[in-house]
């Protein structure tokens, strides 16, 4: 994406602020405000917003426990944050903005973060010796490639699907403008429902599932 502002950092170079970064900041701010609102003034007899917060937490807890086991409940906040964050970014096009996940750097950054957590969890669960033992095999090159391909495949899957949906919608809008601007007001709505809502939700779920699977499998491998 083209930078909307460039911040000189001296010898470190130039930090380019793109629209995807601005939208991510807005998404993070919105999610923080929602989280603070839902978790403020908690009571024994829950209010409506507290009930929503408890329902969301219970759903995430059951989701993590069902896919990773009770030994991984400490990852509820991490898994939940990834799922909600990616889902919110994928729904941004409904507001008329480009999804930050269409910027290759965003899925790559998320995948690298998951990669670090996966390796860190494997070291904690198996110990340094047990972790290094997985590499001490005749299949060392394949083992290294297998682990490197995890963030690569997660990045390309999220980025590719979101970009593909955006390209199709843009082509439909471009074609409809040749006939009538009025046609662009209603005909693309089902496409937004499929690509932005359904596919956006699906890709957030897939990324989250792959995160959980890799955290558990890598520690047990």
UniProtKB/TrEMBL annotation:
What the entry lists under SUPFAM superfamilies is as follows: F1F0 ATP synthase subunit A (SSF81336)
The record gives the membrane topology as:
Multi-pass membrane protein
Q: Name one GO cellular component term.
A: plasma membrane
Q: Which GO terms describe its biological process?
A: proton motive force-driven plasma membrane ATP synthesis
Which CDD domains does its entry note?
ATP-synt_Fo_a_6
Q: What is its main location?
A: membrane
Where in this chain does the entry annotate a coiled-coil region?
none
A GO term for molecular function: proton-transporting ATP synthase activity, rotational mechanism
Q: Where are the transmembrane segments?
A: 12-38, 72-96, 108-128, 148-172, 201-219
Q: Where in the cell is it found?
A: Cell membrane; Membrane
Assigned keywords, A-Z: ATP synthesis, Cell membrane, CF(0), Hydrogen ion transport, Ion transport, Membrane, Transmembrane, Transmembrane helix, Transport
What does it do? Key component of the proton channel; it plays a direct role in the translocation of protons across the membrane.
- Which family, according to the similarity comment? Belongs to the ATPase A chain family.
HAMAP family of this UniProt entry?
ATP_synth_a_bact
Q: What is this protein called?
A: ATP synthase subunit a
Q: Which organism is it from?
A: Clostridium polyendosporum
State the taxonomy lineage.
Bacteria, Bacillati, Bacillota, Clostridia, Eubacteriales
Report which gene this protein is encoded by: atpA_2
């Amino acid at each position: 994406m083209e930078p909307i502002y460039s911040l000189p950092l001296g010898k470190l170079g130039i930090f380019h602020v793109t629209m995807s970064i601005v939208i991510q900041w807005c998404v993070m701010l919105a999610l923080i405000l929602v989280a603070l609102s839902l978790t403020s003034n908690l009571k024994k007899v829950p209010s409506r917003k507290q009930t929503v917060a408890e329902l969301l937490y219970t759903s995430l807890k059951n989701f993590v426990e069902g896919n990773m086991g009770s030994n991984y409940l400490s990852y509820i906040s991490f898994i939940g944050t990834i799922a909600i964050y990616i889902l919110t970014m994928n729904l941004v096009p409904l507001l008329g903005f480009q999804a930050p996940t269409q910027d290759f750097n965003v899925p790559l950054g998320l995948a690298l973060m998951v990669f670090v957590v996966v390796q860190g969890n494997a070291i904690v669960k198996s110990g340094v010796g047990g972790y290094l033992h997985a590499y001490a095999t005749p299949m060392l090159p394949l083992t290294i490639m297998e682990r490197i391909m995890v963030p690569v495949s997660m990045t390309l899957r999220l980025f590719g699907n979101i970009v593909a949906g955006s390209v199709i919608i843009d082509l439909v809008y471009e074609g409809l403008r040749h006939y009538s601007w009025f046609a662009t007001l209603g005909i693309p709505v089902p496409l937004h429902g499929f690509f932005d809502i359904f596919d956006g939700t699906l890709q957030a779920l897939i990324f989250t599932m792959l995160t959980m699977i890799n955290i558990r499998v890598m520690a047990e491998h």
